[in-house]
Design a protein that fits this description.
Oligomer: heterodimer
Number of helices of chain A: 12
Shape of chain A: globular
Radius of gyration of chain B: 23 Å
Shape of chain B: globular
CATH class of chain B: Alpha Beta
Number of strands of chain B: 13
Number of domains of chain B: 1
Order of helices and strands of chain A: HHHHHHHEEHHHHH
CATH architecture of chain B: 3-Layer(aba) Sandwich
CATH superfamily of chain B: LarA, N-terminal domain
Chain lengths: ~290, ~350
């Protein structure tokens, strides 16, 4: 496993875009915050110097802590990932503080009536982009970022937890954020389920939802074993101290000779993070 | 006897001014309507197809070859195929069939395309590898050695909108789409529980990058789904459409509907005309689909009298697609005023 991690790390180092960070795919010349955050977490403790990349990330953060995509002028959902990364790496404390403050301030749109979508529209979580509704992934990451920042009991975290529980699929697990539309039940998906579970850590009253979510991962991931699904499932099982063996085997089988998972940076960095968690116990998503 | 003054009296001036204002007002009101009536003639090809094992390559090749402007872009060009790969559900035909994608790749290569790329940005599920593998599209890509680009996370550029129904002025779009010589929209023939039908224009919603706008692409929903479809389509101006209607979806589309053996392919270079024809095949009145009307000032054709059906006739391939009760009005004959404006008397 150590060889697999080292190969993946070398692939990431070789794919780094000079002066910025990483794109989602190695072929992609445009760096984005999400794959950059995952890659920095993966390369923590290696010989890779993160300074240039941290400077680039810092340049995307506004004075009030909002993270913009390159060339954009609106706050982006990856602000929570930046907070998680800076907390784990213990870097850029001022940026981290301002971004935490922004997360506390940034609220999703609500409504009095959800109409044909069966959920509680008054709950506040985090949106993908300003002035829109809350969704599972940004809310899961937002809750996790604040929990890692020592704000486990903050009202924003508590409401985000309520929102995640409200958005759970009827059979358990999560999709992007609609358990049912127009009377039709919608099925869960692996990535959304894993991120919701990251956000619900340390919440005893969510134990039933957590068990159902883990059961969804147990069932869906081997049925549809992508690199992304396997990586986030392993990270999630590790968070909740569940066995990961068969998932690790499946993930390792999919690694390519160049160390990557299909030359995709975010899959490769998440896969390496999953293997690191199992190998040495360091899990970036565990509170 | 005093001579008549040639100066305008105050009363005449007011009359003339009022007439001018009324004229400008009428001009501004009627001109767009007149422009709408000036829908260009469009050819839409309809082909019967009862199986994905048929010679789809030949059918698509003949379809593309019929349109000289499209053929010109294909030869030596970079062509991006944009199928509809929304998610995976083994029980439902959500997606453009892999055999259609394989056939389009072969046809484009036979017609001289220098590069063919398959690109999609799923609106719900971020795990594109899972979708590609489970749908069988991944095997097609490997067999044909074709590159896939996830439009949700491609490099992006900010582009001014050609129409501006959303009032957003500009969207980020993926560079893979912007850099193509020809973009071919390859939707599934499906009903849609919000937009009525999801066809070649609605399929372009998948070009909106999720990394910026999220999953689902809810930001644009706030500004109107139909308005967003029109703004995306007028700005990207996809040059060709191939609608996979061999097996379509009726009822609660685009995700929870039921398979229907509609046994048809629809192709053409005027996507509004293609979608209008496809809607008629589904027994839906295209005049009732707002996004099609929004395309009229931008070269779209809805009027059946201005669409030359090449190959099969609509009546020969028409199916009665079920829609959800709240969308029942799209199957009702439009009021006279709407038909007068959009499709003539």
């Amino acid at each position: 496993m150590t060889d697999a991690i080292k190969l993946a790390q070398d692939f990431l180092i070789n794919s780094h875009l000079s002066g910025t960070g990483w794109g989602y795919a190695a072929i992609n010349p445009q760096a984005y915050p999400e794959p950059t955050c995952y890659s920095l977490l993966t390369l923590d403790g290696t010989s890779f110097s993160p300074n240039e990349t941290l400077t680039w990330l810092e340049g995307l953060v506004q004075e009030n802590g909002q993270l913009f995509l390159p060339g954009d002028d609106m706050p982006n959902w990856a602000t929570s990932l930046l907070v998680i990364t800076l907390t784990r790496l213990d870097q850029l404390p001022e940026v981290r503080t301002s971004s935490i403050n922004w997360l506390l301030e940034w609220k999703s749109r609500t409504a009095d009536d959800a109409g044909v979508i069966e959920l509680d529209p008054t709950l506040v979580g985090w949106p993908w982009i300003s002035d829109t509704f809350s969704w599972v992934q940004p809310t899961g990451f937002g809750a996790l970022a604040l929990k890692l920042s020592g704000l486990k009991t903050h009202e924003r975290v508590k409401e985000a937890e309520s929102l995640l529980l409200d958005r759970m699929c009827l059979q358990g697990g999560w999709n992007y954020g609609n358990p049912a539309v127009l009377g039709s039940e919608l099925p869960p998906a692996v990535l959304d389920t894993a991120i919701a579970l990251f956000g619900l850590q340390d919440l005893p009253e969510a134990s039933d939802a957590i068990e159902k979510g883990l059961a969804v991962l147990e069932e869906l991931t081997p049925e549809r074993p992508s690199a992304l699904a396997l990586a986030v499932s392993i990270l999630c099982f590790h968070v909740f101290d569940r066995p990961t063996g068969k998932f690790v085997d499946l993930l390792l089988k999919r690694q390519e000779p160049d160390g990557s998972w299909r030359q995709m940076i975010w899959w490769t960095s998440l896969a390496a993070l999953a293997l690191q968690a199992v190998d040495g116990g360091k899990n970036a998503f565990k509170v | 006897m005093p001579s008549k003054s040639k100066k305008l009296s105050r009363r005449d001036f007011i009359k003339l001014s009022a007439a001018g204002i009324v004229g400008v007002f009428l001009g501004a009101t009627i001109a767009p309507l007149v422009k709408r009536l000036q829908q260009p003639l469009a050819d839409v090809m309809i082909a019967k197809g009862n199986s994905y094992n048929n010679d789809l390559t030949g059918t698509i090749r003949r379809g593309i070859s019929y349109y000289s402007d499209v053929l010109e872009k294909v030869k030596g060009g970079r062509v991006v195929l944009k199928p509809n790969l929304i998610d995976y559900d083994p029980a439902r035909p959500l997606n453009t069939h892999p055999a259609m994608i394989a056939a389009a790749i072969s046809a484009l290569r036979q017609l001289g395309a220098q590069e063919v790329i398959v690109a999609e940005g799923s609106g719900h599920n971020r795990d594109m590898e899972m979708i590609l593998e489970q749908t069988g599209v991944d095997q097609v890509l490997r067999d044909e050695k074709v590159r896939f680009v996830d439009l949700n996370s491609d490099a992006i550029s900010l582009v001014p909108l050609v129409s501006n129904y959303t009032k957003l002025s500009q969207f980020f779009f993926p560079n893979t789409i912007l850099g193509a010589d020809l973009v071919i929209s390859m939707p599934k023939l499906k009903t849609h529980h919000w937009a009525g039908a999801t066809l070649s224009l609605k399929n372009m919603f998948g070009t909106i990058p999720g990394v910026k706008y999220g999953w689902p692409k809810n930001y644009l929903h706030w500004y109107g789904i139909s308005q967003s479809i029109a703004d995306i389509s007028t700005t990207l101006d996809p040059g060709f459409a191939i609608v996979d209607g061999i097996v379509g979806m009726e009822g609660d589309g685009p995700l929870n509907g039921t398979a229907i053996n509609s046994e048809v392919l629809v192709m053409g270079n005027n996507l509004t005309a293609v979608d209008s024809t496809a809607a008629r095949i589904m027994s839906i009145y295209p005049e009732n689909l707002l996004y099609l009307s929004l395309m009229l000032p931008y070269g779209g054709t809805v009027n059946e009298a201005l669409i030359n059906q090449v190959g099969e006739q609509i009546t020969d391939v028409q199916s009665d697609f079920e829609v959800l009760p709240h969308m029942a009005q799209i199957k009702e004959k439009p009021p006279l005023w709407k038909r007068a404006i959009i499709s003539g008397w």
